[in-house]
Each structure stands twice: as structure tokens, then as C-alpha cells.
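Example with several molecule types.
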Amino acid sequence: MPRRTDLHTILIIGSGPIVIGQACEFDYSGTQAVKALKEEGYRVILVNSNPATIMTDPELADRTYVEPLVAPVIEQIIARERPEAILPTVGGQTALNLAIELADSGVLERYGVSLIGARPEAIRIAEDRRLFRETIVSIGLEVPRSGLAGSVEEARRIARDLGFPLIIRPSFTLGGSGGGIAYNAEELGETVRRGLDLSPVHQVLVEQSVLGWKEFELEVMRDLADNVVVICSIENMDPMGVHTGDSITVAPALTLTDREYQRLRDMAIRIIRAVGVETGGSNIQFAVHPETGRVMVIEMNPRVSRSSALASKATGFPIAKIAAKLAVGYTLDELPNDITRETPACFEPTIDYVVVKVPRWNFEKLPNADPTLGTQMKSIGEAMAIGRTFQEALQKALRSMEDGRAGFGADGSEERIDPEQLRVRLSIPTPERLLYVRYALQSGWSVDAVAGLTHIDPWFLAQLDELIDLEGRLRAFNLENVPPRLLREAKRAGFSDRQLARLLAVPGQGAQPSLDVRRRRLELGIRAVYNRVDTCGAEFEAYTPYLYSTYETSCEASPGRRRKVMILGSGPNRIGQGIEFDYCCCHAALALRELGIESIMVNCNPETVSTDYDTADRLYFEPLTLEDVLNIVDVEQPEGVMIQFGGQTPLKLALDLEAAGVRILGTSPRSVDLAEDRQLFGALLRQLGQSLFGRDAADVKPFGQGRLGRDAVAWPQPTRSDLSL
Amino acid sequence: MGGRLDALLALEDGTVFTGRSFGARGERVGEVVFNTSLSGYQEVLTDPSYRGQMVAMTAPQIGNTGVNDEDMESGRPQVEAFLVRQVSPLVSSWRARKDLGQFLREHGIVALSDVDTRALTRHVRAFGAMKAAVSTDDLSPESLIAKARAAPDISTRNLVREVSCQAPFEWTAGLSAGWGEPPPPAQRHIVVFDCGVKRSILCQLVQSGSRVTVVPWNTPAAEVTALCPDGILLSNGPGDPASVAELAETVRELLGWCPILGICLGHQLLGLALGARTFKLRFGHHGGNQPVKDLATGHVDITAQNHNYAIDAGSLSGGDVRVTHINLNDRTVEGIQHRQLPVLGVQYHPEAGPGPHDALGLFAGFCRLVDEWKQEHRVQVARLTARTPGKPGPAAEREG
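Resulting C-alpha cells for the full complex:
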């Protein structure tokens, strides 16, 4: 079917301010949707209250409203712009809820506006737990059993029927807040009481727990001709019980046979049809019992989501863009696959690498928050990495976190372990659990024993165990006598130069040891090559330079010969460094394009616009570490690197990059350092005849090392660290 | 991990890949192809259509779920050699019975891990499927390249003979418990020409309420009609359809006798029997994500495929056969149907195993066709039971 000609103006609702669980992935999906609809000649009206977004750039939509995302405001915009349709599926839960509110209050009918992408009935079925359950059961699939309780007594009655542990979900609260897990009658009483208090309708859902079951997600797309394709399967390494946003997740699913995977695929297709999502993407979650294979349907998002952003970056299939085109009437077979050009979007991506996403938490900035991970999401950002194997991808993802890690251990993170707490820390998921898994395996625990406490699939644990084994073999050598074969094996398993420097006990300060490892391996001819993300496992040629590093036999980078500049992105979101820096990086890429200079983007945050293969001329989905950046410089030989746009992340690399001979464009790294290093900056100010704190300040020592000059300064005093946010 | 690179793969054009042996030791020659399925390595390994071929999996992590009893597409692994990027050190699956390496060693299959399967795939994509040799003994590239060059061309081998059954047998198993409803009682009799049939095809026939008799590929038409089939299925199988021209002859004799469905090689044979030509694709279709469009409805199914040869659409034009399905990636023929006779063929694998189940409905569709035909020709069928086999069937009689 060609695109609809009865529509002229389409309103897109954004997702508003960034909150936990709804972050810049919706800037990515919204931006794609705006571009896709404009490309088709529609007049696009955008409303979003978050100005730190690419989508609210005035040049993007035809009309942009930076206004509060509340129904009366949207109604005014509708009255003024008179769109024929609203696309509510690219702005997260916020946009969906608003769309439903506008439908229920009769606004849509009054102005003759239709919802495209998802009908109100479909949104209701997917979002209302009771309707969703009924729909799933009616097509013969299973959901966890549950009951609604209005009192602790009722909850106890339900508990007798279902058995412990139980998941308590208060009705009509946002993002699972107030919910929890009850392991016994006492906890049940507590959790239910709290839930009833928080629920505006004084009601909780008491649900049979599938804690410890394997957790999978499928990203499904459907068009108006009822063609359905699965874009990506995602496996959660942390099993059921940990929110997928707090889980280490892996694409594709790695521990299912074809028969088991196809069963989930069949179910996903039946669900998207039964719920009635006519066009666009949906995310469907399943729990699979590890010993029997029994499947439960957990939930569905009838819109693009955090997972679809991840799936898009993981496969090269632009879900939001295609969803927008399907919403205006195209069918999948009419749309081209941008990457292969010659094949249509109507296919299922296949990948010949493994993608790992690791969440980023910020509990150190929230000292009173409980770091236990459960059904309510707590992470505030994430990094994704691509490797040829799970081991390589996991190590790359861990060193992308910018929390001091250089990979899976061998980086000083061992010091955070408290052996006394081992059992507890394995059983109760927290951000530190992987450290304890490593410690347990290293201390000789069997894979089965660790699996018993963590419920992490033994396959993943065996992969980790192999890394530990390889580490052990490396420790027997130093940089000069390490066998080249072993060094290559380590690089292929994702070990960073920094980890290797530690394992091979290379002496020196700062970046020197890892640079020595780099020098040695380059002497031995062990260098990173770049493979393309091509949606098809190399079956067709890829025309988009979307690349990741690995240690294989042939390089597909084929760098261009034009003038080119590299832009370093801002890595995973965290408190103080969010979407605004991605905004800057995207603009740097656009400015370079205007100048006719090729832009090369380096970033590892899957939620962002900068990691859309459409944004820069070339995209390297890579960790932002000295090693990984230098490897790209080796291949690309850019005339310079821009470090000013990605927040603190690239600034931290500036001096080392310059020392390694890389030309830094703009402000010199020395000047950056002068501004960022408190001591240097203080000295400068004193030199300029001023004082940092308005009087002579005591030099601030690292916490715990020095005493502040109590007598000299008045309390309270702000403390600031170098190169911080 | 661990251990040294102790095996080589040499292609006839002189390209060499290193790897680590994890299957049987030894030396094999064959044609190297790649498969892009993300899951289902066990089904791929045991699919008789791969006889004569070395299969490289583009999915990098293989062996994770071991090998189980239910997912066998035949009694044993059939590939000449198996090439992967990384093999799992541990099996994690509630259904697994053994480790992949152990399974391959037991059956004498040479297998290499740590192969840069992406580079290999890109090479095959660029230069086409080619002859190759693998060895765990001869690690001299020159000598192994020479062996690859000396290997017989796949189109000259009758591989069907190697994988077909030797005598007719009844197949009664449907899907195993837990994977589908128990099969309904048999309402029709389907005879399957075994060119290397996958068990999933037989299971799907049983599952759709059919009695299934499997016969060797070279069974004469008269012997088949003597079995009084209500429908005939020409199975998938390895190699060049031209190498089993005598089966195409048999099919020609059976045209119009009863409804015929061809799958994969069976579809190509049907094409040959109907006067079409086949040709060899550069590197074939091997995977589980191939979009196939039904030209009548416009609907697209995502299908499992495994073939190197295809029907030349040009050779069908103006004849009695129309193209019903095409592949959206390269527009090649994916389905044909005779304009008068109840005869149809599909290039893809509706039975999946491994792959998406989008096209499973084809079996029910074929069974309906068989039943309608049976209804229409009940009288003739009764009369025909005493007829001399090999002569024109009811349709020809009716039309003639």
C-alpha cells in the first residue's frame, strides 16, 4: 500500500523530562519518527517539554512546541494546528497515556484526530493488567496467576493459593513504585500494607512469582497487511526478578534451541495480533522455566521502548523510523533496508556478533537509596558493546561504563569485595553482583554452585569462568615473554590493554602500562579490525559504515579519503552527564557535514541520537577509552579529534590522546586541564590576583587523607573533585 | 578455549582459514556454504540436504544448548564438515542429551571452531560457493588447497542416493509431546519420495492427519501408484536437481495422478518435470530470515531456506506453470503451481526446523487440495485401483 494521502499534518508527542525508565531513547525514537514522516512530505508538529533534545531542534519538525505534556495543552495545540493524526507510540509511556486521555475525554473525536500506530483499544489491552491477562489467556497462553487484594487478609488468602514468593504490585502507581517481593507471611503483610497505602484505589495485585526463570524479550513489528517480523531477541542475563532496565542483557538470545525460540516467536506474533497493535513495534516479555521450558507471558509494550532502541542499535534495523512509516500506511515489503539497500525491510535481522548492554547506576550519589535490584528500575543509563563473542562484548561493555572498570575484573575492582558477604551478595541482586560472581568463581566455586544462588544461566557463568581461566594463564608471564598466541587469544576474549598491563605486571604510571601493552601487541601484529553491523550476517553487502572492533582476520572499515574529523561522544548517561552532551555531539556532526568534512562518531550509549547510523558519516560503536579511541585513530587517521562535546568523558582522554600524537581540535588539552583540575585552576586564579574561595583556601586533599584546615575556613564548605560533573 | 590452532580450511581459490578442531579428526572435502540462522545448529547439522557441503554458521556462539533427541532432522549429522566461530564449553538446556563436540566425534564429523566465519562468509558471498578441504592432519596450506581443487564438483555427484532410504517405510510420529496437539487420525495417504527428507516434513504431514509412506528416491512410478496415494510429496535433498534426472522422469509420469507437492529439491524436480530449467545461485539461500511473498495475496512469510539451485523464472513463461511466490531479497522463484493440474512446489521450507513457522499452513493447504481431489475423483480412484500403474492418471483421463 502506498502512504496515506488523507493525512497532511501529524502530531508527535515526545516523552518529556528524563526520569528513571524513560530517558534519551525517546529522543532517538522521536527524532527518527519526525525525520521519517517529514521525508514522506507530511507536516509534522512536535510537542515535548524537554529542550535538551535533538527532536526539539527548530529545524527538525515543521512546528515545535516546548510545552508541558498535559492534556489541556495538547488540546490547545490540536485546536491550533489541526492535525489529522497523532503518532503516540514514539514518546514512551507519557505519550501513550496522553493519547488515551485525549481519546477518553473526547478531544480526538471533537477535532477529528485519529491515533496512528496504535488504536486506543490496543493500548488499553496492553496497559491494563486485567485486560491483558484475559487476552493472553483467551489465546491459550499462560500468565503468572494472581489475585487483587484490598486488604492484608485478602492478600493472605491469595497467598495460600499461590504460595511464596509473591510479587506485590500496587494498582495505578507509576513505574512499579511501591511494589515488592514477599518471601513469607510477615513480608507479605508489610509489602501489602505499604502497597495499599500508595495505591490511589487501595488495591494491590498479588502475583505468583517467577523469580529465577529465564527472561527473554522479543521486538516485534507488524504492518497493516498483517506481515509480522521479529527484529531481535534479547536475553536477560539476570533472570526474572530484576527489572530488564537493571539487567545485563544480551542479543541475540543465546540459551534457547530453535524449537524453544520459535515457540516464543509464535507466541509473540499471536499476542501482537490479539492485542490489536496494527502497525509498528512492540516489545513482549517472556519468562521461561529453566528446567521444564514452561513459558509465561509477562508483559507487552505497544510502542517503541528502551528495548527497541537497544534492538535497533544491536541489529542496524531502525525500528522507530520504520514504525513511523508503517503508521502512515506503508507495508514492510515496500520499505528498503537502508543498510543493504537491495533488500526490503520485510525480513528478520540476523547478526554474526553478540551485543551486551550493561546498566549504569549512580547509587554513590544517592547514599540513602537501597541498591537492591528488583521489579522497579533503578539504573539511570547504560552502555552497549558489540563483540564477536559474548566474552568480548561483555568486557567491552564493562569498560564502557566509565566507573573505573577496565573489563571483567583485573582492574582493581576486586578491592570492593567483602568475602564475608559472598553468599548474600550472590543471592540478592545489586549492582555489585557481577563482582561477587567473579570472586566466587575465582575462589573455586563451581558454575553450578554460583548458578544455584544467582539463577544466572550456567552458560553465561561458564563464559565468565573461561575468562578467569585465561587470566590465570596470562599471570604466569610478563610483557616480554608472553606468547603472542596467548596475547591474541586474550584480545579476542575482549581483554583491554589496561587489564593486560595489570595481569602481566607492567610497571609505570597512569596510561603508560597500557600503552606499553599496546606497543607490544602492535609489534606482534595484534591489532583491532572493524566489522560492519549489516542486519544480515554478511549475506549482503553493507553500505552504511556502522562499525565495531574485534580481533579477526579482515577489516571492513575502508576509511574514506576526504577531510575527516572524529567526535568523541559522552558514553552512558549518569547524573550530571545526560542527553545534553549527545545533543552537542550530534550538532558537531551536522556542522561538519555542512562544511563538507566527514564526521566520525565514537560512542557506546545505545539510547542516543549520536549512535544512530544516520547521524554522523561514520559510526564506531565503541567504548570511550584511550585504547579503543587510539585503535580507531590508527585506522581512520582523522585530521583531528573533537573532545569538547561529550562532557567529561572525552575531556578525561584529552591529555593522553595528545601525548599519543593525536591532534585535538579546539581548546588545547592543557587549557582544558587548567580549567578542570581544581589545584591548577586555583593556582591560576591566585596568580590572577583572586582567591578560589574568596580567601586563602586549604588545598583539598582526597577524602580521608588530609584534614581540612578547620580553623582557617568557615563551615560548611563545598568540596569539589577534579574532572567531575 | 585453550589448545592451539590445529586445523585448516582451504578453499579452491587458494584462501586459507585456520581453526581449532572440536569434532572428529581427519580430512574432508566438499562445497563450503554459510548458514545465517541464529538458532537451530542441530537441525542444520542433521539436514540431509547438506550432504556434500561444509556449513559455516554465521551466528558466532554454537553448541550452547548441546544436542537433544527431539531436534534431529535425520538419524545423524549429514554435513561434510562444520565451521564455527566459538563453541560452547558447557551445555545449558533442559532438553540436552549430549555435548555438540561429542556428538560430532561420535559420528566422525570434522568440526572447526575459532574460524573467522564472517570473513569466510564475505568471501563466499563475493566469489560464490566453492570447493574446499578441511583437515586436522595436513596443515600445509599448499597441499590442502590442492586437495580442495581435486575434489569432485558437487553437481557431478548423485548425493540423493547417499541419503535416501533403501526401502519403503511408514512414518507415524507427529510432533513430540509438549510441542503440539496429538495428531488427528489419518484421513489421507501421502507417499513421500525420500531425496533426503527432513523429519520435520514427515511430522507435519502426520500432524495434519495423514498416513505417511516414505519410499526411496528411485521408486518407479508404478510402485508408487500401487501404494494408492492420495497425494505425493517430493522431498528436499542435497545437490543439483539435474543429477537426479531420472526422478524428474518419474515425476512426469505421475503428473495428474494425484496432487503433488514439491519442497526445495522436490520443487526443483517438479520444475524440471514440467519443462522448466534450473540454475545454480552464486551462494544460495541458507538461513531462517528469507522473505517470501505470496503473489496472490501480497502477504509475506519469513521462511527457512536451504538451497543452492533455483528454478529459472524465464523458463516458465508462457507455459502451464505460474510463479506463485517470489523471494523479496533477490526476486527468485519461491513457489510454482500448475494451471490445470493439482501440482505445486515451494523452494522454501514450510516445515521450518530450524526457522520461523510462518509457512506451516502450507501442509494443511496441501491436505485440503488432496482431500478435494479425492472427493472429486472418488469414482475414478475406485476404478483405478485395478489399473496398470504408470499410465496416465485420473486427471489426464478426465481431460483427455
